[in-house]
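User: ok so my PI wants both of these folded by tonight, can you help

Assistant: No problem, let's get them done. Here's the first:
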Amino acid sequence: MSWRDRYEEVRRFSSGLTAVKRDGQWGFVNEKGKKVVACQYDEVRDFVSDLAAVKRGGGWGFVNKKGEEVVACQYDEVRDFAQDLAAVRRDGQWGFVDKGAREVVACQYDEVRDFAQGLAAVRRDGQWGFVDKGGREVVFCRYDEVREFREGLAAVRRSGRWGFVDAADKEVVACRYDEVRDFKEGLAAVRLGSQWGFVDAVGKEVVPCRYDEVRDLEEGLAAVRRGDQWGFVDEEGKEVVPCQYDEVRDFENGLAAVRRGGQWGFVNRWGEEVVSCRYDEVRVFWWGLVVVRRGGQWGFVNRWGEELVLCRYDEVRALRDGWFAVRLGGKWGLVDEAGEEVVPCRYDEVREFHWNLAAVRRGDQWGFVNDKGKEVVPCRYDEVRDFYPSMAAVRRGDQWGFVSKEGKEAVPCRYDEVQEFHWGRAGVRRGDQWGFVDEEGKEVVPCQYDEVQEFDMKLAAVRRGGQWGSVNRLGEEVVSCRYDEVWVFWWGLVAVRRGGRWGFVNEKGKKVVACRYDEIQVFSGFGMAVKRDGQWGFVNDEGKEVVPCRYDEVRDFEEGLAAVRLGSQWGFVSEAGKEVVRCRYDEVWDFEEGLAAVRLGSQWGFVNEEGKEVVPWRYDEVRDFEEGLAAVRFGSQWGFVSKAGKEVVRCRYDEVWDFEEGLAAVRLG
């Protein structure tokens, strides 16, 4: 039975997790089907920036990949996080929250756009401005239209005219142009009437508005058109390539394709025509090689215009890693990034290189060539798969085997189906039975199973007669096939399920824990969470129950401690099972820099890893420690406390930002 069968609906994977639906409610599992977020939400979206939007009871919030609801479900609408902030709507007004659930921009705007370069466009009473991540309106709402900041400036429109404003609310380019484009490489295209030019970041018109058409800068040069002729200008406004070409393409790797009289060539950034206009078609690639066509035939030219390969190929196809497939007289070969024909045109088909080997076909038979052009695997197979990493599956007739990178048929073609190698073993099928072979062709696990899964380092799950077990790399059935489901873990432990209950078996097949758990959950940190009779605990990597099943909820271990809930109260347990912080808090955050924020009633403080309350619970709001200091709020005023609990910056500021490289921004008034 697959884990997918336990759910009514399973979506596609995104960021390593997929949404699953059970009993009408949504949650998330990882790629092995292990629960990450419990099925308790009416609607969910995919994870973006490690957080997923979730809806419950009509309100939207966010959960993280640990299953924690970091932003409570209280908003009418939310957008995904962008630059660590998410737009949220309440009562028709928009604002922004951070990943700590702090509403950094109050819900007071009619419309907002996502943050870009640390600023977000906001609209109030029909006028647009910008706010920063601290919630300050750095550009007041006074424009009819605005665009995103690019290179420190944003295009703004007022009374039908465009200009540019900076993040200090200074209009560096006055609103006097009919049209503008965003800044790129230090310049922005601007139009006055029907003529185009460019302005720089201080508002100077470095290229006067005298061209009929312009493009954005690429590699410091911009294509410009006067009449029906094209040329190029540089960043200082100098016309380095005169307007004399019928068509031009943007610069790429120091070259630009140009056309005159129906023929193509190339100019360099100094205006020199390094490849004269004599080709019907040209293409340039990132490593400087130029593919050219003349009279229906293709060849290769370098960036200095030297013809490396005469135009003699009927077809050229770009592959990965600087290779080209070339066809001559119906046969294919391979050319490298220097233009050298490494593999002669003698094959009917060629594929991409994988692990320095490419599959090639002659007639209806396949083989492999290496990156030196040697046919290391002769063309004698009816079908081949790409190398991964040192072996490739090959078929002769209707039987499959494997060849090595040296061309040796390491596994003879005698199987009906094969899988890829993992940890030196590959699943193979003879008839309807599966087994495993090693890289020397030895059948280490006889073909006697109905289904097998790939090895996860030490063990692989196998199924026979509807029941699952596991085998080791030597072929020993260390866990006999008598379970309804098994999960194999890379360190050798096997979780087994029988009759709806889970237990654990070690890599030698010895029962560690009888099947007595209702549910198991694998976390990213220490061991696994286990549930019995509605209560949660933890087992270690050996399957030993180090934290007894007596908690109503548990979270993943962080810095050696896991948050646990007993009734409505939270505390922390160690990996040894000791409750180092007694369950008496209404809310706790995970440990960060050796301390965890805890809430008692409406007041917050911090505890250390020994459970000592180093910062008394007297603050209305706190943030995690950054560079040894944590922002704290007392009433409406913010300050900072040290890890010793000392209020090193008195609570007297209206807003503060976290410390970064020894400094923190603060706002007063």
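One down. Here's the second:
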Amino acid sequence: MQGDFNRSTENCAAALNTTQQEAEWAYAQCPDVDECGLGLHDCHREAKCTNTHGSYNCHCRRGFIGDGRTSCVRTCFETCIHGYCAGAPDYKCQCNLGWTGGDCSINCGCNNHSTCSEAVGKCDECQNWTEGEFCERCSAGSFGNATSIIGCQPCDCNGHGNEALGVCDVQTGECFCQDNTEGIHCEVCNREFYGDPRDGGQCFFQCEPRGMLTHIGRQGIGSMQSHKSIYGGSETRECLWIIRPRTSGGSLLNTSLIQLHINREDLNVSCVDNAVYVYDGLPDLTGNTQQSQLLAVFCNQDSTAMTVEAHTGHLTVYYRQGPTGQGFNAMYSVFSCSSGTCQPPHVCNDQGKCVCPPGFTGPHCAIERCPGTAVSPSGGENVI
């Protein structure tokens, strides 16, 4: 189009020569207007105007972000390469784990598992289940490769991994199971046990005619499943559990304290038909001496505390299977000074027994002892 900055004309001569005479020079096209230089632009005050032929561009200045015309919002002055802008009031880069520097471009040398506030290569604290000088190893309770993108993952053992062994294999993630469980993730109970160990559930040692339990850790017993001979026949109906804790070397823990607990919802035994009998020691179930060793008799009508303690280092539970659908599940724990499992509030006395602190008694050491009583060597009370 021909013309000047004001309007179009038929030819350049008409625009430049009012006498309508032929001009000695002319433009091939209208010259460009520098809107930026002439202040004819509408860029934001925090934007830079860049002239182009026939137009112009608006770009927010460094440290601001937006379309350059209607908006330029303050941001970090540096481009956060491995991080993000923290915003007001400092507007500084917040680096991703394992990176440092003003623009988060410097690798800490910690395999992206730690900060390095003091110096590059000096890892502050390894995270993401890693350990080592440069966070190069998976820590106990995890598996994988700390130096790879995948990194380390926590062991998935449903809460039954053996911590003494590292919970699971550091490379494969296969669990080192305990609590009478087995499987890659400790998701099933061992033979002769029943229950659902997933999500921290328990396994219970089934009804046996003479079941021996020697483990120190927290264990379960129950009558909801009975032993059945591989040669056929009916299931066992006379249930007897004898708890005699032993050390890892096989020695009996005769000074141990054994605590048995039955949750109310885990007990369905009619008092008319039967009950659960708990003894301190190894009673003669055919004679009369058993009564002196009887700790408790549990059935549905029992409203007393559901926790009892054996102080002789042995605990016996007897139950005769009743009608279908009846039975119980119980948990027991072993507290021993020699094995280091005497847990608060219990304390170790001079005889090496795990007992309540002076002045208290009861399964949880929460009952104040009456004046005029003393603790016997077995851990019980004697009136004085």
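The first strand starts at residue 47 and ends at 52. The helical segments are 12-16, 35-38, 290-293. Good luck tonight!
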